[in-house]
Amino acid sequence: MEIRVLRYFLTVAREGSITAAANSLHLTQPTLSRQLQDLEKELGQKLLIRGKYKVSLTPEGMMLRKRAEEIVTMVEKTEAEFQSISNIIQGDIYIGCGETDSMKHIAKVMKEIQTQYPEIKFHIYSGNAEDVTEKLDKGLLDFGVLIQPIDLSKYDNITLPDKDVWGIIARNDSPISGKKLASLDDLTGAPLIASRQMSKKYSADSGFLDWFGEEFEKLNIVATYNLVYNAAIMVEAGMGYAVTLDKLINTTNSNLCFRPLSPRLESGLDIVWKKYQVFSPAAKLFLEKLQQHFS
After folding, report:
1. Model confidence, pTM
2. Which domains does the chain have, with CATH numbers?
3. pLDDT score for 277
């Protein structure tokens, strides 16, 4: 497969039309159609369902779209890294982040580098730990900022000094809103919107198993989430209480409030990168700055 043809395929997938894609790529429609047909022959699979006015992807086409996006991103990242090898430190740094208020400390380091090296650009990808580590393992990210617990066997890491506090987001008209803290009694039997850390796989390491004790298996989890913005919308709709970290949702002048768990429950954070990672000059500089600030 040629990178050029993968880019053609991604353009068709994005435009939903061979004609529109050909115009965007400055190709003739027959030329683009022939390239796509050759790609289907090479892979031995039908990738496109061709309609009268638009095209859609087959299941095999959707699989290729995901892989092609990863391949093209990796190629562009590699090209940028080699272009940045010069006396002037420049280039792109790719960082994946879980949702945490401690990102503000990373942002200060980014700002310091940006001031000194304006040719360095940062690209932030937000997602949960599975999303970030998958891209980290594939080389699509240089660093990940992750909430503990984390399996560090494949990574080097810097532990951030702060810890995030767990609590719940509730509506202002809920019974818990009148309290300063949310206790186990408050949550027992209540409809909960749960984060990844509350799953059975991670509950012991993150402290939830100890916090809930015997009630853990009886939790009334009505929904789960990986990004807290959507969880807050579900809370506002009256679906239940979202268990989340403090300072991720601004509840000022809103219909929502945050109440910390009692007893207090906290999670640490780590900046991670692949062991034996070969960094671009820009990413290497970023790591050195992180080590100066946090090690």
Report:
1. 0.69
2. 3-80 (1.10.10.10), 89-162+269-294 (3.40.190.10), 164-267 (3.40.190.10)
3. 85
